[in-house]
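Bumping my old thread because nobody answered last time. Still need a sequence for this structure:
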C-alpha cells in the first residue's frame, strides 16, 4: 500500500476537519498565588525526570521541594494546584543538545488531571510508545511526533475517549489494525505519517464508519 511507503509527510485524517489549537497561556500559575502544586504530583514529575536523559539540562528547574507549577514546561491550575499540561517538545535547533531521551516512567499516571502531553521532537530512540499512555484518561492532546519511537502503536490508545488531537508522525511505527481509532470518540485530528500500515486492512471500513 502506498500509505505504508510514503516518502513525504502526508497526514492521515479520518475526520472532516482539523483541530485548531489555540495559543497556550502559560500564566495559569499566577506569580502572586500562594498555592503550591500537589506534593504527590511534584514527586511523580521528579520520578519522571529521573528516568530521562537531559543533555542540555532543560529540566534544571525541576528540583525537590520546588513549586512544580513554576517548572519549565509544566502548566498547573492556579485554583487546584493540579498539573494540567506538560509541554516538553524539544526545539529543532540545536536538536542533539536539547532532545530528551531515556525512558518514560509510568509515574505520569499519578497526574490524574493531565490533559496535554507534548513530547515531540525528542529522541526516545529504540523504545516503544508506553502502553500506559492509554490509561491517561484526561488527555485531550497527545503529540509524540518526530520523537524517535519505534514498534507497534499501542491499541489501548483507543481508550482515550477525550482525546481530540493525536500526532504520531515521523516515528518508526507500525499497526496491523486501525480498529483502535474507533474508540477515540472525541478525535478531531490524527496524523500517522510514515507509520507502516501495510497490514492494516481495516482502514477503509474505519473511514466509512466515521
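Sorry it took so long. Here it is:
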Amino acid at each position: 500500500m502506498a500509505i505504508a511507503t510514503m516518502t513525504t509527510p502526508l497526514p492521515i485524517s479520518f475526520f472532516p476537519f482539523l483541530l485548531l489549537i489555540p495559543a497556550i497561556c502559560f500564566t495559569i500559575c499566577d506569580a502572586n498565588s500562594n498555592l503550591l502544586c500537589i506534593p504527590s504530583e511534584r514527586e511523580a514529575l521528579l520520578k519522571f525526570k529521573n528516568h530521562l536523559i537531559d543533555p542540555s539540562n532543560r529540566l534544571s528547574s525541576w528540583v525537590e521541594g520546588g513549586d512544580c507549577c513554576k517548572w519549565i514546561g509544566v502548566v498547573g491550575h492556579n485554583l487546584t494546584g493540579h498539573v494540567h499540561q506538560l509541554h516538553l517538545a524539544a526545539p529543532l535547533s540545536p536538536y542533539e543538545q536539547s532532545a530528551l531521551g531515556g525512558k518514560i516512567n509510568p509515574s505520569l499516571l499519578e497526574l490524574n488531571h493531565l490533559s496535554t502531553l507534548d513530547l515531540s521532537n525528542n529522541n526516545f530512540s529504540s523504545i516503544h510508545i508506553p502502553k500506559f499512555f492509554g490509561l491517561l484518561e484526561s488527555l485531550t492532546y497527545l503529540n509524540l511526533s518526530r520523537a524517535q519511537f519505534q514498534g507497534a502503536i499501542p491499541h489501548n490508545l483507543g481508550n482515550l475517549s477525550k482525546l481530540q488531537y493525536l500526532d504520531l508522525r515521523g516515528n518508526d511505527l507500525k499497526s496491523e489494525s486501525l480498529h483502535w481509532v474507533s474508540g477515540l470518540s472525541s478525535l478531531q485530528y490524527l496524523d500517522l505519517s510514515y507509520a507502516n500500515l501495510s497490514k492494516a486492512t481495516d482502514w477503509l471500513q474505519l473511514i466509512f464508519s466515521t
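The domain at 39-208 is CATH 3.80.10.10 (Leucine-rich repeat, LRR (right-handed beta-alpha superhelix)). Let me know if any region looks off to you.
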